[in-house]
Amino acid sequence: MAIRPLSAPSLVIHAALLVLLAAVPAGPALAASTANVPESKPLLAGLPEGAGTRGPGEDIASAIPIASLPFMAVGTTAGRANDYDAACPYAGSTAPDVVYAFTPETDVNVTVSLCESSYDTKVYVFRDGPGSVVVCNDDAECGGSGWQSMLDHVDLAAGHTYYIVVDGYGTSSGEYRIAVLENGPCVLESPARLIVETEPPCRDGWDDSWNGGCNSTPRVFQSIPPSDATITLRGASGTYTTDGVGYRDTDWFRLDVEQQSTITVCGRAEFPLLMWVLRRGPGEGCSDLEHLARAAGTVCGDACATVTVEPGEHWLWVGPSVYSGVPCGKGYVVTIDGYTAPSTERLASWSTIKAIYR
């Protein structure tokens, strides 16, 4: 993305700015987004509770269907059987696996992410059965350890069934988060340091308990660790209604800044995009926020802001600039540069270790 710095003088945000950051166009700043919202929350499309070793997703014959995109799910490979393996480049894995199936109605380009999983993952795709592997990845240098997996910009042809296998390196197994996202005209190629917001798509009556920040009760933020490389956030947003009131899905990301830094954020979205860089206020942090920078962009247009921040907790706010007309699930990409940790001695990556000792 072209960088067009946009900075603003620091000022204290009181009730007026909190209304701007809220999910609704008017009303009490912090309570409005959850007022009159049903208590029930949508279930993620993971493994059914109590699923046994031969339960849904155990193999291709019982693959868990993906009905539409974007698709997000949580599950675990622990206790499953080892049905499949692929060399990418490491063969001989005996890790348990889980299978998902997707049959696109039209040609589509997707990204499949396991970046937010808790173990050393592997992911690969079969086409129309357990034959040749279409694409495979072991380490995408994403996630908390860099050992998680991602398939970026994969072409899927209409009318064919694609089996996405969630697997592990060696004997690794554990809890996973899978996101399958359609790459629209605004989505860029992703660099190695990718973080995917695996929040389910919003819907009418939505209660954002994922990363709704100051618009959620309790307050909830998605933490972003610092990196010397460009950080890329892939997410989705939209607008919805509850009791006839227009709401927007607002995403709040937490940045724990350890040293004075000049941070540049750039975004592009399939909707009119709005971003804020905020410094946490005193107390609970959602009152008297300090406004550091703002950036806005048109549909598929670039929006950038550059700001110098002091050590402390900061929040990056991402959402539509409008309260209606954006179907839930519309994608966005935000890059962050300059958000780095104090330099420390670097260890060899797990990919390097694997290459030595495989």
What does it look like?
- The protein has helices at residues 15-21, 350-357; strands at residues 11-13, 64-65, 71-76, 98-102, 108-113, 121-127, 133-137, 150-156, 162-168, 175-182, 194-196, 222-224, 231-237, 239-242, 245-248, 251-257, 261-269, 273-279, 289-297, 303-309, 312-320, 330-337.
- Helix content is 4%, strand content 37%.
- The strands form five sheets. It has a six-stranded mixed β-sheet with strand order 1-19-18-21-16-12.
- It is mainly beta and 358 residues long.
- It contains two helices and 22 strands.
- Strand 14 and strand 15 form a beta hairpin.
- The two termini are 38 Å apart.
What's the gist of this structure?
With 358 residues, this protein is mainly beta. The protein is 4% helix and 37% strand. The longest helix has 8 residues, at 350-357.
